Amino acid sequence: MTTTAGDAVRVPAGAVCAPADLAPKARFFPALAAVYRAQLSRARVARIPLLFVATFQSVGIMILMRGVVDGGSEARAVVAGSSVLVVAFVALNLLAQYFGQLRAGGGLDHYATLPVPPASVVLGAAAAYASFTLPGTLVTAVFGCVLFGLPMGGLWILAAVVPLAGAALAGLGAALGLLAPRQELATLAGQLGMSAALLLGVLPPERMPEVIVWARDLLPSTYGVEAFARTFAADPDWAVVLLDLGVCAAVGVLSLALATWAYRRAAVR
Amino acid sequence: MSTGTAQAEPRGKRGTAAAAEAASDVVCAVRDLVKTYPAVRGRRGAPALPETRATDGVCLDVRRGEIFGLLGPNGAGKSTLVRQLTGLMRPDAGAVTLLGHDLVRHPGRAARLLAYLGQESTALDELTVSLAAETTGRLRGLDARSARAARDSVLEELGLTEIAGRPLKKLSGGQRRLACLAAALVGERPFLVLDEPTTGMDPVARRAVWSAVDRRRERHGATVLLVTHNVIEAETVLDRVAVIDQGKVIACDTPSGLKAKVSGEVRLELVWRSAPPLEVPEVAALAPPAGASARRWVLRLPPEEARAAVAAVTGGPAFAALDDFTLATPSLEDVYLALGGRMKGLVKS
After folding, report:
1. Least crowded by CB within 10 Å, which of A62, B171, B183, B194?
2. pLDDT at residue number A22
C-alpha cells in the first residue's frame, strides 16, 4: 500500500488497528519529586556560583544601607528585604532565564512528549530553585542581624517565608520565561522583576511616594518581607504575620497556576 | 558493543517477512496533513520570510513492526511533520491516527503511546547520564524501582555504563546523542520516533543504536519512525522510506523499490583537478547544465553512455585534468534528484 502525495490510497476503516492501551500517566507527586531531584542536581553544578553572587549582593546592599539607616523599623525592613532578595534573585531571575532558555532551545519538547502533569514540571523546578535559596537567605539574615543589632530569635520564620515567597516568585519567574516571545526578553523580564524586588523590598516604605507604595503592594515578595520584618519586633503581632504569609501563599498558588498554563501553551505550538 | 550486528542486518529476511505479514496492520496513518508557518515581517537584522507551507498535504501509512523512514535534506519539513505526529504541534488541517487514537483531537495521548528522541538535549544537558535516564523513566510513569532497573539495563545495552556518572554536556556529541537515546528508550513504548538519532556518532555507537532498535522490534513488536538526511543509513536500516521535499511526500516505497525507479541509469562522478577541460568536445557534451565550471560533476547516465563517457575522460587530454572518478549504481540520493528534489543537503556517510 504505497502512498504518495499524488495518489493517496485510503485505508479502509477496518484495516486501522483498534485503539491501543494508553500507558499510564506519571502521577503528580512522584513526577514532581523526580523533577525536583533532577533540578537540584543540576543546580548543584551550575548555580552555586550564582548563589554566592546573590548572597554577596544582598550583604553588600545591607552594608551600604548601614550608612543611611540607623536601627528601628527601617533597619528591620532592610534586613528582611535583603534576605528575601536572595529568593527573588534565584527564584524569579534565574528561573525566568531557565525556562526561557528551555523553550528557546527546544528542551520543552522533552517534557511535552512525556506523560507528565505540567504542574509537576513547573512546581518541581520552582521548588528546587526556591529550596536552593535557603542557605543564602539564612546567611544574609544572620549577617544583617549582627550588622544592625537585631534579635535572631525570630529567624525560624524564614522556614515559612522562603518557601512561600519562593513559590510566588518562582511561579512568576517561570511564567515570564515561558510567555516571553524570545529568550532575551525572558532574561530581561527576570532582571526587571529582580530590580523591582530590590528597590521595593529593600528600601523602607516610609520614605516612598504613595504610587510606589501601591506598586510595592502588588509585588508578591513584599508580603514575605513584611512578615519577616514584623518578627523582629519585641512582641510580634502573629495574626498580621500569618495574614502576610497567607497572601504570599495565595499569590503563590495563583502564580504557579499561571506558570502551569504558560507551560501548556508553550509546549504545544 | 559485542553484538556485532552488521549495519545492513535490520533489513534482513525477518523485517521483510514481518512487513508482508503486517500489510494491513497500519499503526500510524496520516491523511492530508497541512501546516503553514505565517509570514514573518522583516526586522532589523532578520530578513522577512514569506509564508511557508512546511507540511503540504502529507499522507503516510506506517505498519506495525517496521522501521519507516522520512528522508529529505535539511529544511524539507521532516521535523515539522514529526512534531505534528508527536502532538507537539497542531496541524492546520488533516488527520493523524496513531495506534487507533486521533492525535489531532487528543495530542496529549501521544506521550502515552510513543517515545520521542528530538534533536535537542537542552532539558537533559546538565544531568548525569544515569540521572537523565532515570528521571525520564520516572516521568514516563515508571515507579522508582522499575525506573532504576530500566535505566541500568538500557545504559548497559548502549554501552554507557562507564560514563553513567558524567553530565551530558561534558560528553562528545555522539555520546550525548547516545545518552539522549537511552533516556528515550527507558520505559517501553510501542512506537518510537527518532529524529536523526545517529548524528555525530562513530560506527560502534551507530551499531549499538540499530541493535537496540532492532531488539525492541523483535521483543515488543515496536514500530519505528526514523527521520534522517543520511542516504546510506536510509538504504541500510529502513524497511520503507518516504522521500520528503518542500513539505510534500514525493515518493514512498522500500529503498530497493525506489532505486528500481532509476535502475536504468548509473551514477558517474567526476572530480577535476582545477577547471574542467571544456575545450575537449566529449567533456563539453557531458557538462551538467548548471554548474559546468564546478570541480565536481555528478552525472546520471544510461550504462552505455556512462561507459563512453568514462572512455572519453580517462583517455586523451581530459585525463590530465581528471583528479578522480567513480562509477556506481544509483543511491537514494539519485532517486531524490530524479524525482525532482531541488534542495541540497543529503549526507552520504
Report:
1. B171
2. 85
Residue A5 belongs to some domain of the structure: no
Domain that holds residue A197: 28-38+47-267
Report residue B287 as a C-alpha cell.
Answer: 557538462
φ, ψ at B262 (rounded to 5°): -120, 25
- Name, in order, each residue with C-beta under 8 angstroms of B216's C-beta and a sequence gap of 6 or more: B185, B188, B192, B222, B224
Distance CA A145, CA A76 (A): 9
CA quadruple A196, A198, A202, A208: dihedral positive or negative? negative
- Taking only the tens of pLDDT, chain B with its 349 residues reads 334 444 444 444 444 444 444 445 889 999 999 999 888 877 777 777 788 888 889 999 999 999 999 998 888 888 899 999 998 889 999 999 999 999 999 988 999 999 999 888 888 888 999 999 999 999 999 999 999 999 999 999 999 999 999 999 899 989 999 999 999 999 889 999 999 999 889 989 999 999 999 999 988 889 999 998 888 888 889 999 999 988 899 889 998 888 888 778 888 888 888 888 888 888 888 877 656 667 888 888 888 888 888 888 888 788 888 888 888 888 888 888 777 776 666 766 6
What is the C-alpha separation between B78 and B33, in angstroms, rounded? 13
Contact between B128 and A41 under an 8 Å Cβ cutoff? The reply is yes
CATH class, B264-329 region:
alpha beta
Angstrom distance (rounded) from CA A172 to CA A165: 11
β-strand pairing of B240-245 with B248-253: antiparallel
Instruction: List pLDDT tens digits, range B154-176.
Output: 999 999 999 999 999 899 989 99
Name the domain count of chain A. Answer: 1
ipTM of the complex: 0.79
Spell out which residues of chain A touch residue B134, defining contact as CB-CB under 8 Å.
34
pLDDT per position as a tens digit, A79-130: 998 998 888 888 888 889 889 988 888 888 999 999 998 888 988 988 888 7
Closest-CA distance of chain B to residue A12, Å: 9
Q: How do strand B191-195 and strand B114-117 relate by DSSP bridges? A: parallel
Torsion on CA atoms A70, A76, A79, A82, rounded to nearest 10: -110
Flag whether residue B139 sits within 8 Å of chain A, measured between CB atoms.
Answer: yes
B26–A17 C-beta distance less than 8 A? yes
Tell me if chain B has a CB within 8 Å of the CB of A42: yes
Residues 21-40 of B with CB under 8 A from A: 23-27, 29, 31-32
Contact B61, B29 (CB under 8 A): yes
Which fold is adopted by the domain B9-259?
Rossmann fold (3.40.50)
Instruction: Indicate the domain borders of chain B.
Output: 9-259, 264-329
